[in-house]
Amino acid sequence: MPSGQILLADDDAAIRTVLNQALSRAGYDVRSTGHAATLWRWAAQGDGDLIITDVVMPDENAFDLLPRIKKVRPELPIIVMSAQNTFMTAIRASERGAYEYLPKPFDLKELVAIVGRALSRPRGNVAQNGIPDNEDIPLVGRSPAMQEIYRALARLMPTDLTVMITGESGTGKELVARALHDYGKRRKGPFVPVNMAAIPRDLIESELFGHEKGAFTGALQRSSGRFEQAEGGTLFLDEIGDMPMEAQTRLLRVLQQGEYTTVGGRVPIKTNVRIIAATNKDLRISIQSGIFREDLFFRLNVVPLRLPPLRERSEDLPDLVRHFVALVEKEGLPRKQIDTEAMERLKRYRWPGNVRELENLVRRLAALYPQETITGPIIEAELDTAPRADSAPGSTGPVDGETLSMAVERHLTDYFKRFPNTLPPPGLYHRILREIEGPLLGAALAATRGNQIRAAELLGVNRNTLRKKVRDLDLQVVRTSR
């Protein structure tokens, strides 16, 4: 049976009662209060083995109180809970020494589990990061999916771990990478982004590692590479799935040995950079196709972080729209209001371009429409005329009336064209099935808001079968309410 005294602070008496009952049933001795002053008095006199506190208290903000508590009781674990649910709330909780941050509402079983881990962990001082105290960061949203991202980022800030960010185009992968840098331990160093898809294949190694004078035709002088430019800071490798195999081999060697040589150089150069990679591709399929190194994947995928597409966090649309409206107003465009009907139409849209598409729409509305209030018909007209992601010039995207079978046949025709003089790598049957199965399960889970029982019924499979496939395909399931 667990034991320990918990100091609980929340100005909502009903919440205190519920938490008190749950923790008492778990075997803990709980003392609760609705005031920060009482919590401070208990902690200062040595009471309690753990603190659970809300951020907003009637007499003092918990973020102002935490540093004082950590100064007199540095090993006392503190769990912060808040209904504010912003990225900066999670970061400030971490910066001020909190053991864990829980956005309200949260699962009581999760709270009890966190309390158990906190009380059983080895005690040690928690270093404070001195993170800038501001809200000027473009990570917006309070949905459960984004709360998981915020909590993961807060845990990663004091580390130098390599992070792999995955997500569809337009979900904000570079913004997350910048947040990890700007609020992490390397924020005083440079942040150097490199888009692998934008660099010609024969120049990638020179771009990353630099080159010596005369290393190749046109190399008239020595040039520093992105690794050298990012020394002491963060190197963000965007679209890592487009890196050619030769460069992958050299990058792997850098990650293994912590040093590199310039193109045409002979002297190894030590490197001290944090690597953050990002991709909108399924690198496991790329590995099976023989176009991405498995050993490099495991080196980069130390901490995987999946950004949800906008259609999985439609409840964040009002906050995102307000954010972009304020942003374009600062840039000199007129301020707009989005009425209820228009907002509901935005929530029903699938957003193939994700947050980037939404930002572009808000800019277009501010620039082209004279009326102050944007109505449903305006949004309907804009979304109906918006270019589809699969109908770009030169694409072989789907056409009206195309069936799934026809789309698969078209995809396979394009795929075989990549191997004009040979055959694709073995295992094509299972690769294709996996490629179809992942999006199918993901769409069913998104449609049922993460409810696996309903998703299994929708798909016509056993619930245990669905759970196994979710685990095997490494799908992230986020349970949300309508």
Give an account of the 3D structure.
One of its GO terms (biological process) is regulation of DNA-templated transcription. It comes from Enterovirga rhinocerotis. It is found in: Cytoplasm. This is DNA-binding transcriptional regulator NtrC. Residues 139-367 form the Sigma-54 factor interaction domain. The protein is α/β, with parallel strands linked by helices and 482 residues long. It has 4 domains: 5-144, 3-Layer(aba) Sandwich (Rossmann fold); 159-306, P-loop containing nucleotide triphosphate hydrolases (Rossmann fold, 3-Layer(aba) Sandwich); 310-385, Helicase, Ruva Protein, domain 3; 425-472, Arc Repressor Mutant, subunit A (Orthogonal Bundle), CATH 1.10.10. 44% of the residues lie in helices and 12% in strands. The chain has helices spanning 13-25, 36-44, 62-72, 87-95, 108-120, 144-156, 173-182, 204-209, 226-229, 245-257, 283-288, 294-300, 317-330, 340-348, 354-368, 376-385, 404-417, 428-447, 452-459, 463-472; strands at residues 5-9, 29-33, 50-54, 78-82, 100-103, 163-166, 191-195, 234-238, 259-260, 269-270, 274-279, 303-306, 337-338, 373-374. The chain has a 5-stranded parallel sheet with strand order 2-1-3-4-5, with helices on both faces. A hairpin with an 8-residue loop joins strand 9 (259-260) and strand 10. Helix 18 packs across helix 19 (452-459). The longest helix has 20 residues, at 428-447.
